[in-house]
Q: What sequence folds into this?
């Protein structure tokens, strides 16, 4: 589900930002990074060749996230969702078992209540 949402967001993102310019500032040049290359700003923030990042205020006050961070977040979400679903399944199994035991206890209680002798009461178990 989360990956579907991310895919839709990725497909819609170009249309949302298409009116904005991603050109370089005056006096700078775009560059293609080779395998393993990194680009570091004067503030010490580095971006490797696999990152897809934009200027922090390119579209809105929140900016963009790097694709690698988004993928890591989505993977973490998927793992957490799997854990949650497993816990829900375990809970439902325990709840079903508790309901079966409650019915069994009720049957035994009723049998003992209506027994007319000790031997009949013993046969309830």
A:
């Amino acid at each position: 589900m989360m990956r579907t949402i991310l895919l839709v967001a990725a497909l819609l993102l170009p249309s949302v930002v298409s009116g904005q310019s991603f050109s370089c500032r005056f006096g700078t040049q775009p560059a293609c990074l080779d395998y393993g290359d990194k680009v570091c700003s004067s503030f010490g923030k580095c971006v490797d060749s696999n990152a897809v990042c934009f200027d922090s205020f390119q579209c809105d006050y929140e900016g963009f996230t790097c694709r690698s961070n988004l993928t890591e977040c989505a993977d973490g979400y998927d793992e957490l969702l799997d854990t949650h679903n497993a816990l829900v399944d375990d809970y439902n199994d325990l709840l079903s078992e508790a309901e079966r035991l409650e019915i069994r206890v009720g049957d035994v209680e009723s049998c003992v209540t209506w027994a007319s002798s000790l031997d009949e009461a013993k046969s309830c178990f």
